[in-house]
Amino acid sequence: MANEKVCIRHALLTDLEALVALENSSFDTDRLSRRSFRHWLTTEHRALLVAEADHKVVGYILIIYHPGTRLARIYSLAVTHQLRGGGIARMLMTSGEQAASDDGRLYLRLEVSVDNAPAIKLYESLGYQKFGIYRDYYEDHKDALRYQKRIRYYHDTQYRSVHWLRQSTPFTCGPAALMMAMHGLNKAYQPSKQEEIELWREATTIYMTSGHGGCHPIGLALAAARRHFTVEVWVNQTAPLFIDGVRNEEKKQVVELVDNCFKQQAQEQGIRIHYNDITQIELINAFKAGAIPLILISTYLMDRKKVPHWVVMSGFDEDCLYMHDSDPDDRRQSELDCQFIPIARDDFDRMSCFGKNRLRTAVIIWPS
Q1: d(Cα 47, Cα 102) in Å, to the nearest integer?
Q2: Domains within the chain, CATH numbers bracketed
Q3: Distances in Å between the alpha carbon of 347 and those of 57, 105, 319, 335, 352?
Q4: Does position 155 have pLDDT exceeding 70, yes or no?
């Protein structure tokens, strides 16, 4: 069938049955369910396009947008068996790229089975660059190749080889971030779940707004210094951190005590503390000089929850800072999307402050 007889359009809820039928005929494993298609047809933060010929759905592409970032991911692509090889997949890919670009996305990423030669040929012909492999990715245990394309324009990006780690508890983003940075700077340092909990015990504020305490920047710096790394801290306020969200007066006194103890220990250890806003230029200069920054962000732009969260800087270019996030969730669908997350420069300044007092803080880890 000639390409001119095929049109690409946004999917409608009335396409649900056709999409499910196409999915079931296209894949033996890792299929999207009817429930998943219904979700993606009715939610935001995605582009779901279909190829239509003779009033029939003959292909689709699903691209997921990640709130708070400029990253998009091609989650699934399918074309009916009878029409494969006729250019429909290429039409869907180029239309999907345009939809993602129109939404302000800078990068498209995808995963493809190592033995899917036709798809790999298509992606590479469209300019996608291989940047990794994910072992045992699919239900049939096959490996996946990871590809990426800059869909607006290209600038050289400086990356750091930082091994990604998933935090093992809801409250240990700080330790996970610190372990990523320390391992990235010294491969002899070995992260572990035991180490993750030990770091949290050393760095926690004891209390937060609810639940377990979060990690204080100076507490994380002290933990890194004990492991023979050189550290410095940037924090834009001298008052005890995170205390405003603690309602109980006795708990507030404990938080203030911990804050004072951390500051005293940092002074004794000779850890430099800058009581100023850290700028993007200072983060980039530290990164270029060989350090790896940990940065406290608010997750509001990503999940509409005002939660403090530690991430690791893993690269930069003219338009973006790149982060490793230790906490994949259902929205992102894959831990792959938590690595080298592109945060546009204008979004970063809004994301990297927390609370009513607009706390801005970072811990710079230097090689041991």
Answers
A1: 11
A2: 3-154 (3.40.630.30), 173-366 (3.90.70.10)
A3: 38, 12, 10, 22, 9
A4: no
Secondary structure of the chain in HEC code, one letter for each residue? CCHHHEEEEECCHHHHHHHHHHHHHHCCCCCCCHHHHHHHHHCCCEEEEEEEECCEEEEEEEEEECCCCCEEEEEEEEECHHHCCCCHHHHHHHHHHHHHHHCCCCEEEEEEECCCHHHHHHHHHCCCEEEEEECCCCCCCCCEEEEEEECCCCCCCEECCCCCCCCCCCCCHHHHHHHHHHHHHCCCCCCCHHHHHHHHHHHECCECCCCECCECHHHHHHHHHHCCCEEEEEECCCCCCCCCCCCCHHHHHHHHHHHHHHHHHHHHHCCEEECCCCCHHHHHHHHHCCCEEEEEEECHHHHCCCCEEEEEEEEECCCEEEEECCCCCCCCCCHHHHCCEEEEHHHHHHHCCECCCCECEEEEEECC
Give phi and psi for 335, each to the nearest 5: -65, -20
What is the spatial distance between Cα 206 and Cα 221, in angstroms, rounded to a whole number? Answer: 16
The closest of 297, 345, 344, 353 to 325, measured between CA atoms, is: 297
Mean of pLDDT values over 342-366:
88
By CB atoms closer than 10 A (0-12, 13-18, 19+), residue 157 is middle
* pTM (predicted TM-score): 0.69
Return mean pLDDT, the chain.
Answer: 89
> What would the pLDDT profile of 48-57 be if each residue is shown by its tens digit?
999 999 999 9
Closest C-alpha to 224, from 257, 180, 258: 180
Percentage of residues of the chain with pLDDT beyond 90: 62
| Calpha distance 80→155 (Å, rounded) | 37
Q: Which of 183, 272, 290, 172 is closest to 227 using CA atoms?
A: 183
**Which is nearest to 233 in space by CA: 195, 201, 277, 190?**
277
Q: Give the model's pLDDT for residue 152.
A: 66
Q: What is the greatest pairwise CA distance in the chain? A: 76
Q: Is the pLDDT of residue 106 over 60?
A: yes
